[in-house]
Write a structure and sequence with these properties.
The protein is an all-alpha fold. The protein folds into two domains: 21-78; 81-134. The protein is built from three helices and no strands.
């Protein structure tokens, strides 16, 4: 079943290079562009992270130098108040103020209670019943009307 004038290599090229498909060519180009953009982004990210590490290291170095100076100044002079001493004194004063306010609130109620008891005792003394309690008991109340004496 051979066709006349057609050879094997004409219809079925064996060694010919494959022709690129235009649809796959666009996809491959887009993939390469994406890979380049990803590499750029990774490069920028690494630069940013390096800059962030430098800033963090500089901040830590300044913090450590400040703390060393603070420790050195405290060791040089014991009579000078340092930052931590002042903070401690302010904290103690704030705590004392809070305790004073809390006790005055509680003692304010206690003072009112003691004042009510004292007022009650003074009222009984003013009414005349307080001094009449003795060993023999309470005296009878005075009469409502004074009695007339007839001569």
């Amino acid at each position: 079943m051979a066709k006349l004038g057609v050879g094997v290599g004409d219809d079925f090229p064996i060694d010919d290079p494959k022709q690129p498909n235009p649809e796959t060519q666009g996809a491959e180009r887009a993939r390469e562009e994406w890979r380049k953009a990803r590499a750029e982004w990774r490069k920028r990210r690494e630069e940013w992270r390096a800059q962030q590490r430098q800033c963090r290291d500089a901040w830590r170095r300044q913090r450590d130098e400040f703390r060393a100076r603070l420790r050195g100044s405290r060791q040089e002079s014991d009579h000078d108040l340092g930052f931590t001493d002042l903070t401690f004194i302010v904290a103690l004063l704030a705590l004392a103020a809070l305790v004073l306010i809390a006790t005055s609130a509680v003692l304010g109620h206690l003072y009112l209670f003691v004042g009510a008891i004292i007022l009650g005792v003074l009222y009984l003394a003013w009414r005349g019943d307080f001094h009449e309690f003795g060993a023999e008991g309470a005296k009878p109340p005075p009469p409502a009307e004074p009695t007339k004496q007839e001569n």
